[in-house]
Specification:
This is SDR family oxidoreductase. Pfam families: NmrA. With 282 residues, the protein is of the alpha/beta class. The chain is 46% helix and 17% strand. Strands 3-2-1-4-5-6-9 form a 7-stranded parallel β-sheet, with helices on both faces. A two-stranded parallel sheet has the order 7-11. Helix 1 packs across helix 8, helix 4 runs parallel beside helix 5 and helix 10 packs antiparallel against helix 11. The radius of gyration is 19 Å and the shape is globular.
C-alpha cells in the first residue's frame, strides 16, 4: 500500500512521514521542492497546489493520500479544488484531509475554507476521513521568548479554552488513520485531551519557568493593532484577532478524546509542552 503525503516538508508533514517510516510504510512525499523532499529519506514527487498539472503525476499509484491543507488563507478553496480533482483523476483510493475543529459549524474565520474543502471531497465520491485538527500547541510554546521577555501574553480569547495538541501528536493520529482500517467516512475532532485558557497558559509558563507571566485580554481591534505592530500584515493580523475572538466564544473548546484514542496514549499536556520548549531554549 502506497501512502502519499502532501506538504511533506512542512512542520506537520515531516512528523507524519517520520511516523509512517517508523511503521515501515511505503511513503511518497508530495512537495513543491523535490530536492528538499528527498531529505526526508523517501521518494519525492513534485506537487504544487498552484500548478495543477503537477498533481495527477504526483498522486498516481496512491492508495491513501494525506491531504495537508494549504497555508495561504484566502486562496485555499481554489488550491484544494485542484488537489481533489487530481486525486480523482489519479485514482486515489482514500483521501485523509487535515481540516479544522468543527469545520461544518465553527465561527472561526478560518473554518469556511475547510468547510468548502470537506464538501468538495464528499462530492468527489472518494472514500475520505477528516481530521479536524485543533490549534497546534506550538502556536503558543513557539512564542515563549516574547512572553518571558515582556511578562505578558496578549490576546482576545477571553476565558475561552483551546484543546490544542502538539504537531507530533496530530501527526501520530494521521499516521494511525493512514495505516489502519475502519476509518473511511469518519470525522475525528482531533486535539488535546484537556482544553486550557490563556490564563492557564500564562500560569503554566510562570510555574515552569519561574518568571511571572500574565495574560492580558484585549478588544479584538486592539489585538489586531498589536499584531500589526509586531510586523504581521494587516489582513492576517485581523484574521488572527478574529480567530481569538472565536475562541472566546468556544470555537476550540472541543476536547473529545478522539486523538488519544487514535494514538493509543494520552496527548501531550500543556505543562509537558511548555517544559520541552523551555529546555529547547536552554
Amino acid at each position: 500500500m502506497t501512502i502519499t503525503v502532501t506538504g511533506a516538508t512542512g512542520q506537520l508533514g515531516r512528523f507524519v512521514v517520520a511516523a509512517l517510516k517508523r511503521q515501515g510504510a511505503d511513503v511518497v512525499a508530495a512537495v513543491r521542492d523535490t530536492a528538499k523532499g528527498e531529505s526526508l529519506g523517501v521518494p519525492a514527487r513534485l506537487a504544487d497546489y498552484d500548478r495543477p498539472e503537477t498533481l495527477v503525476p504526483a498522486f498516481e499509484g496512491t492508495d491513501r493520500l494525506l491531504f495537508v491543507s494549504g497555508s495561504e488563507a484566502g486562496r485555499r478553496v481554489e488550491q484544494h479544488r485542484a488537489v481533489v480533482e487530481a486525486a480523482v483523476k489519479a485514482g486515489v483510493g482514500h483521501i485523509v484531509y487535515t481540516s479544522i475543529t468543527r469545520a461544518d459549524t465553527s465561527i472561526n474565520p478560518l473554518a469556511p475554507e475547510h468547510r468548502a474543502t470537506e464538501e468538495l471531497i464528499v462530492a468527489s465520491g472518494l472514500p475520505y476521513t477528516f481530521l479536524r485538527n485543533n490549534w497546534y500547541l506550538e502556536n503558543y510554546t513557539g512564542n515563549l521568548g516574547t512572553a518571558l521577555e515582556h511578562g505578558v501574553i496578549l490576546g482576545a480569547a477571553g476565558d475561552g479554552r483551546v484543546a490544542a495538541a502538539t504537531r507530533e501528536d496530530l501527526a501520530a493520529g494521521a499516521a494511525a488513520v493512514l495505516t489502519g482500517d475502519g476509518h473511511a467516512g469518519r470525522i475525528y475532532e482531533t486535539g488535546g485531551d484537556v482544553a486550557f485558557s490563556m490564563a492557564d497558559l500564562a500560569a503554566t509558563i510562570t510555574a515552569q519557568s519561574g518568571t511571572e507571566v500574565a495574560y492580558r485580554d484585549l478588544p479584538e481591534d486592539d489585538y489586531a493593532q498589536a499584531l500589526i505592530g509586531f510586523g504581521l500584515p494587516e489582513g492576517f493580523a485581523r484574521v488572527l484577532a478574529a480567530a481569538d475572538t472565536s475562541i472566546a466564544r468556544g470555537s476550540l473548546d472541543v476536547a473529545t478524546g478522539d486523538l488519544s484514542r487514535l494514538i493509543g496514549r494520552p496527548t501531550t499536556t500543556l505543562a509537558e509542552a511548555v517544559t520541552a520548549a523551555l529546555k529547547q531554549r536552554g
